[in-house]
Design goal:
The complex is a heterodimer of chains A (about 290) and B (about 325).
Chain A (H helix, E strand, L loop, with lengths): L7 H11 L3 H29 L3 H4 L18 H4 L5 H32 L5 H13 L6 H10 L6 H5 L6 H12 L3 H9 L3 H10 L4 H17 L2 H6 L8 H10 L5 H33 L4
Chain B lengths: L21 H7 L1 H30 L2 E2 L8 E2 L3 H8 L1 H34 L4 H9 L6 H12 L7 H8 L16 H26 L3 H9 L6 H11 L1 H16 L3 H6 L9 H10 L5 H26 L9
Antiparallel strand pairs in B: 1-2
The chains are: A mainly alpha (about 290), B mainly alpha (about 325).
Chain lengths: ~290, ~325
């Protein structure tokens, strides 16, 4: 485009005029509002069911709100003897945190190496990494399980976490990001005698925290929500993550609606917090990189 | 070690020149640093990605039941078994039907939401958050809500309750393949979970469209609304749309969580990964056939990706990203 950069306010005006008057705006807000209500219904259902008694949930007549809020339901998933819910929550915390920390460390280093350190075979290495992107990770769960089970890592944190740390995709994202990182900054640091390693930790990382935060948020959410791999690895209930525990509720013989929904609410809560506080980075990261890991 | 120096100023510093230099020479060597940075990742990649892939290709030519060490060479027997397996082929049909619904639906809904949110002037961040919020929910949790409450087949499910107000009989959403209402459940759960994410991509792309284009169009007499959308917005979103459709397709191919949880007892509507799971980790633990299935699925997705990239011109639209 050869057009000179416009004054944004000026440019905005004619567009504004086009966009209908009060009527168009009302329609816009009604449409958005209806969509928003539809999107919130599932959240409403969780909360409604979590604080009701079972007879109320399954009752003849639909009740929008519990007659009296059952605060006692909050502890019920933890007292349940059929599924060790507390244990599964703890497993999820450990797995999601270590998964995130590991990926950030390993993939960012590799991404930086591929983007910035000259080496005559760097291109070949990069193509080898790119090639792994062609193979969808979910499809390789059979071979990965074969490997992990022969290492004896079934039902262990190692088995849950380590195989997922070497994400060609995250490495690729970091490489793309570092390619755009201002070179002058690191070169100044290296001239000062820091070397690649020192320059990386003292200059590059501190100036890339936004990007790290974005990747961390996405990775954490994916780690917490992962299901297929934990299902495959967690053969024993003691190694279940919270997602596997939730899944087991659905196939249990006896269905305790309020308990199941309270457990679901508890399992989502940490992510809602992560989400609300880190949304800025998340949105930025998605807009920048375009993809969820 | 080859000391290809990075900058002209850095001296090659061979280790023998002086006793005080080697450490610095090593630290300055870009080859050493390259491996220092990428080594841990590459070692892991080899062990946990390349080795399993190679191993499973190897296994796919052997008889391997209940064990991951191959016992007897069977040639293409596993492939034959997988490809003639009615369940496995059925799963490819399931994927095709699923993709035919979910890909266009998500594309349209996420683009629609992006257009709405992008035009808001008040409470924009609020509405964007509402549509984006489901991204934080897992497929398992969402499946649970859909199965146990929203689309519960008995009268106290919300969908059946609402339908009941209009005199419609209870619908067994998931436990009856005929009529195939389960598709509505399966598709809406994913639609709810992923639309907000793709909406963010579209919002970012919409904001990158130069405003001058709209001005020029309005000077030329283009009516706002459909005409501008059709001739300016949509073509400008081409690169993003292509990427989104590709991502949606690959994601649909790997669908597992909601099918596994929603249709756990069903014999219908089983997508490829669920079949693979049953084959390798079900009662038979047939790792040979499971590996062959994984190889077939991987090849298929590669072909689909390449063909789709070619048809939609992946490389072409990149400039607007």
């Amino acid at each position: 485009m050869t057009i000179t950069a416009p004054d944004i306010d000026k440019a905005a005006k004619p567009v504004k005029v086009k966009r209908g008057g009060v009527l168009g705006n009302t329609g816009l807000y009604i449409a958005t509002g209806v969509a928003a209500v539809l999107f919130l219904i599932p959240f409403y259902l969780i909360v409604r069911n979590a604080f009701m008694t079972d007879p109320e949930i399954t009752g003849e007549e639909w009740k929008w709100f519990p007659t009296s809020i059952q605060w006692g339901n909050i502890t019920e998933p933890f007292d349940d003897v059929t599924v060790d819910f507390a244990r599964s929550l703890w497993n999820s915390v450990v797995v999601a945190v270590l998964h995130t920390a590991g990926i950030l460390l390993i993939c960012s280093l590799a991404g930086y190496g591929l983007a910035r350190i000259p080496y005559k075979h760097a291109n070949k290495v990069f193509y080898a990494v790119l090639a792994t992107l062609m193979v969808p990770t979910a499809v390789t769960f059979v071979p990965s399980f074969v490997l992990v089970s022969s290492l004896g890592w079934v039902d262990s944190y190692r088995g849950l976490i380590i195989p997922g740390l070497f994400s060609g995709f995250t490495c690729f994202l970091f490489r793309q990001y570092f390619l755009g990182f201002p070179k002058e900054l690191e070169e100044a640091a290296r001239v000062d005698g820091l070397g690649y390693w020192g320059a990386y930790w003292r200059v590059v990382v501190p100036n890339s925290l936004n990007f790290f935060a974005a990747i961390a948020t996405i990775t954490f959410i994916n780690g917490w929500n992962a299901f297929l791999w934990p299902l495959v690895i967690g053969q024993d209930p003691s190694a279940w993550t919270v997602q596997v525990a939730l899944s087991s509720y659905m196939t249990n013989q006896t269905v305790n609606y309020h308990l199941i929904f309270m457990a679901t609410a508890i399992s989502i809560l940490p992510l809602i917090f992560v989400f609300l506080f880190l949304q800025r980075w998340l949105v930025q990261g998605i807009a920048q990189t375009g993809i969820k890991g | 070690m080859s000391t290809t120096t990075t900058r002209g100023v850095a001296q090659p510093a061979p280790a023998k020149v002086s006793k005080t230099r080697p450490r610095r020479g090593l630290r300055a060597s870009s080859t050493f640093n390259f491996w220092l940075f990428t080594g841990p990742f590459l070692i892991g990649l080899i062990i946990f990605v390349f080795v399993p892939i190679g191993w499973s290709i190897w296994l796919s030519f052997f008889e391997a039941r209940f064990t991951v060490t191959p016992s007897e060479f069977v040639g293409f027997e596993n492939y034959k078994q997988v490809l003639t397996d009615a369940d496995f082929r059925g799963s490819l049909v399931t994927f095709t039907v699923f993709a035919a619904f979910i890909v266009p639906a998500t594309w349209a809904l996420s683009l629609g939401l992006a257009l709405l949110v992008n035009r808001l002037r008040f409470m924009r961040a609020f509405f964007r958050s509402v549509f984006f919020l489901p991204t934080a929910v897992s497929y398992v949790a969402a499946s649970l809500i859909w199965k146990m409450s929203l689309f519960n087949g008995v009268r106290f499910g919300l969908a059946n309750t609402v339908l009941g107000w209009f005199g419609v009989e209870n619908i067994a959403w998931l436990s009856n393949p005929d009529p195939p209402w389960y598709w509505l459940v399966i598709v809406t759960v994913r639609l709810w979970l992923q639309s907000g994410f793709y909406m963010i991509l579209f919002i970012a792309a919409l904001q990158n469209i130069p405003r001058e284009l709209y001005e020029a169009a309005s000077l030329d007499g283009a009516k706002p609304g459909w005409q501008t959308f059709r001739h300016i917005t949509l073509p400008q979103l081409r690169a993003t749309s292509t990427a989104v459709i590709l991502l949606l397709l690959v994601a649909a191919y790997q669908a597992f969580d909601e099918f596994f949880n929603l249709l756990s007892k069903a014999t219908w509507g089983q997508p490829p990964l669920v079949e693979l799971y049953k084959m390798a980790l079900g009662e038979n633990q047939n790792y040979g056939a499971g590996s062959a299935g994984a190889v077939v699925l991987t090849l298929l997705i590669c072909v689909v990706t390449l063909v789709q990239g070619k048809i939609m011109g992946f490389g072409r639209g990149e400039e607007s990203k």
